[in-house]
């Protein structure tokens, strides 16, 4: 029987298509979020940036994955997404390569995340942009927050993980 996959087993690409082995994030608290610049929830970029500013020096990492699967709300290439959200929202946390989060072409990381944490109704699928997965310092996927949960609402939870 093959060993069970872990968060740290995956490698993702940044917006310049450079590999980032997630094993480099051992000991960090990580938020993985699928994003789209044309989405009505795009102002969540502001709150994500505020959380990043508050906690990055304490070991928080935010990885934002552009995705065009929901209403074609992310038509830009990932590098352009990074430039646009930096200009519009002041984003300095990592914007990764564009991915699929559902379906036959979904990124293996998202397959893993969804298998670890179902949504509040018990479904695995990502329902919309700005779903957030939280990974603790041990690489465990400990929470999943839906689109309608603003980042400010998860900040106390992140702070608790960072302090423990």
UniProtKB/TrEMBL annotation:
Which superkingdom does the taxonomy of this entry point to?
Eukaryota
Q: Per UniProt, which keywords does this protein have?
A: Antioxidant, Oxidoreductase, Peroxidase, Redox-active center
Record field: catalytic activity: a hydroperoxide + [thioredoxin]-dithiol = an alcohol + [thioredoxin]-disulfide + H2O
Give me any GO biological process, just one.
cellular response to oxidative stress
Query: What is this protein's name?
Result: Glutathione peroxidase
Annotated GO molecular function terms are:
thioredoxin-dependent peroxiredoxin activity
KW S-adenosyl-L-methionine (keyword) present: no
Q: Which organism is it from?
A: Meyerozyma guilliermondii (strain ATCC 6260 / CBS 566 / DSM 6381 / JCM 1539 / NBRC 10279 / NRRL Y-324)
Tell me which family the UniProt entry assigns to this protein: Belongs to the glutathione peroxidase family.
Q: Which residues form the active site?
A: 39
């Amino acid at each position: 029987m093959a060993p069970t996959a872990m968060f740290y087993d995956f490698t993702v690409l940044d917006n310049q298509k450079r590999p980032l082995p997630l094993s480099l994030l051992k000991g960090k608290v990580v938020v993985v979020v699928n994003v789209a610049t044309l989405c009505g929830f795009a102002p969540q970029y502001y709150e994500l940036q505020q959380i990043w500013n508050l906690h990055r020096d304490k070991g928080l990492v935010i990885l934002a994955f552009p995705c065009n699967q929901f209403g074609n709300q992310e038509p830009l290439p990932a590098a352009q997404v990074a430039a646009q959200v930096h200009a519009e929202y002041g984003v300095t946390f990592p914007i990764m390569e564009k991915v699929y989060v559902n379906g036959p072409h979904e990124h293996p990381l998202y397959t893993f995340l969804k298998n670890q944490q179902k949504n509040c109704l018990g479904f695995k699928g990502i329902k919309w942009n700005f779903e957030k997965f939280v990974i603790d310092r041990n690489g465990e996927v400990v929470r999943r927050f839906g689109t309608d949960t603003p980042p400010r609402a998860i900040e106390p939870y992140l702070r608790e993980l960072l302090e423990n």
